Amino acid sequence: MPTTIADTARQDLENAAGNREVYDPSSPVAHFGADEPLLLDAGRALSPFQIAYNTYGTLNEAKSNAVLVCHALTGDHYAASQSPVTGKPGWWSSIIGPGKPIDTDRFFVICSNVIGGCMGSTGPASIDPATGEPYGLDLPVITIRDMVRAQAMLVERLGIDTLFAVIGGSMGGMQVLQWTVSYPDKVFAALPIATGARHSSQNIAFHEVGRQAVMADPDWHGGRYFAVGKRPRKGLAVARMAAHVTYLSEMALHRKFGRNLQDRETLGFGFDADFQIESYLRHQGMTFVDRFDANSYLYMTRAMDYFDIAGDFGGRLANAFLGAKTRFCLVSFSSDWLFPTEENRAVVHALNAAAASVSFVEIETDRGHDAFLLEEPHFFAAIDGFVSSAARARGL
Amino acid sequence: MPTTIADTARQDLENAAGNREVYDPSSPVAHFGADEPLLLDAGRALSPFQIAYNTYGTLNEAKSNAVLVCHALTGDHYAASQSPVTGKPGWWSSIIGPGKPIDTDRFFVICSNVIGGCMGSTGPASIDPATGEPYGLDLPVITIRDMVRAQAMLVERLGIDTLFAVIGGSMGGMQVLQWTVSYPDKVFAALPIATGARHSSQNIAFHEVGRQAVMADPDWHGGRYFAVGKRPRKGLAVARMAAHVTYLSEMALHRKFGRNLQDRETLGFGFDADFQIESYLRHQGMTFVDRFDANSYLYMTRAMDYFDIAGDFGGRLANAFLGAKTRFCLVSFSSDWLFPTEENRAVVHALNAAAASVSFVEIETDRGHDAFLLEEPHFFAAIDGFVSSAARARGL
């Protein structure tokens, strides 16, 4: 309970950001001071900055068993432990843990909140040392490469020279790919899941719809909602609803909801939620705003939109992977229309053209893009097989 | 230029509704008085009400050459003549006209603005005689069947007993199907294009996103924005942007926009429109609000969501078409993911099961749902062939 003016102001900020982790992470935090600035693609430096992270398992003596897990758009570093915000289990606790595909009895797993996020790493809700106020849109636009650059500084801080593996889905998969391009010698094995080497026009379009929804909300105040104790709740909820539809498949929606009515026998002839799918989406929107900062949502979507590895290599994706020694395992999901199999396969083809070691599997499922977060036995088996094989090759 | 208080109030209403056609249609209008109420599925009657419409060509002496054209979600009755609002040619002037697939030298073409619309037919922006104020959300929810019931009254008013053909795409196609179910003896030939016998869960989801965007806009004022001289411009623009993405295909977006930048050589590292697809969508949103009433958008999307022919026939679609004498021609577009070929084919299968006369063609195109509004030679040829053959059978 706030007792001082400073406490009250902090409480306002926490409320505006959506959760208290922004200012008071319950996880370990790595601080980087003035002597260790983060150089950003935007041409500016972020300093000081901090990275909130979690680790699971034990680093071996050779420091050769570290696995970096990269989270998706609205994810966080609570990959395998309970979220302090939602109270839910870690978002990938089905994959990471003792005896699981990423076995914490064997591996030292690191997961950090990305730069630009809102769960303890420096982002738009963080205090700008130049003004004493939250950055808001004064934070430079962050790229996937910036996120990876920050992660590399964290990994170095943890005393690790080479990662055994880097794994992540969706925006996390983009980070995995960027790791293999930015630090090819520091990644033994890479698992980009349900992702692509660039964000498609359609995906940019959906992100732009979400951003416009946030920015159309008068409570957004040009990104300075903190100063007035407001939050663009409605706009952010609409953005989340629009995005959420893209995470599912038509088939999954049909199977799960169809045209089933919500709490009623007949149509209501009004604009309340008649259909279960409407209630479901409204719930998704409303719960999201309780845990996520609206400006962070703008930054995360922008980072994905800007992602285009080939663009950095004269338009030829294979050139990004020339001489790659990393072992790759890509996984796509048959009903994922946000990052369809073709987008994943384009990366496989580029890796083949670069003579890299690559395996690829498309998992048959009707659960759409979200499948990478769900119980998918064939997906788990694919990860398990690849990771075990890579571990043997690594002498683990 | 307004000169009286009444004129000023009217101007405010026109501005709030998005266009002056709402109150002052430049087309013919059929008025239905207290003795001719429109009975609605919501269990209420609409009275008085009016229907704005256009006709092209000449009705023959036998009154056997009438073609009813049904418009889509945000369409209007300017199917083959210049829109008084946008100044653009009629939305289907490529199909309707002298020597065109729907040949106005041979046929008498009728196109009316649907009930619930905002181009001159009674809708939420119309004045509620009970209050003297615009209906707003006091207008009962309108269904596709209500729209068709109103059209049938118009057709009767025009002295036509049986329509030679009914044709329309998307929501227009829903009306075509409903015509053959509600008035099976009054439709000689039916052409439902890019549509389905029910609205899918995914489509309801996207519509709900749009409605929430409109209703989240504080300028919506619970649907009573007229009273305060406001319009939920931003919310409606976001709704239109979200919907517009679903009208295109990933392929079309990639071909047309890809990741091309707008008016710049390099990324802007900000939240202005960097990519052409962003500028395009923003433009679509902004121009839409200049011509469409926000409440009408809620009513139109709801009508589509409620549409489920099988639901009216114990869940068995074929039962809706038992004994059908109408000749059907269905057309789908290969890259349409809003009404994919399977949804169209489900109607074909039901018609087959009901032993109806039906032909079906899937047009190969990468232009998505919008293809039904575009120059698609194979589509035009299919309509031309079917209409000519049906005209011969009809003795025209």
From TrEMBL, chains A, B:
Pathways involved: Amino-acid biosynthesis; L-methionine biosynthesis via de novo pathway; O-acetyl-L-homoserine from L-homoserine: step 1/1
Keywords: Acyltransferase, Amino-acid biosynthesis, Cytoplasm, Methionine biosynthesis, Transferase
Gene Ontology CC terms, in alphabetical order: cytoplasm
Gene3D superfamilies linked to this entry: 1.10.1740.110, alpha/beta hydrolase
A Pfam family this chain is assigned to: Abhydrolase_1
Chief location of this protein within or outside the cell: cytoplasm
One GO-annotated biological process of the protein: homoserine metabolic process
PANTHER family noted in UniProt: HOMOSERINE O-ACETYLTRANSFERASE (PTHR32268)
Protein name as it appears in the record: Homoserine O-acetyltransferase
Source species taxonomy: Bacteria, Pseudomonadati, Pseudomonadota, Alphaproteobacteria, Hyphomicrobiales
Gene transcribed to yield this protein: metXA
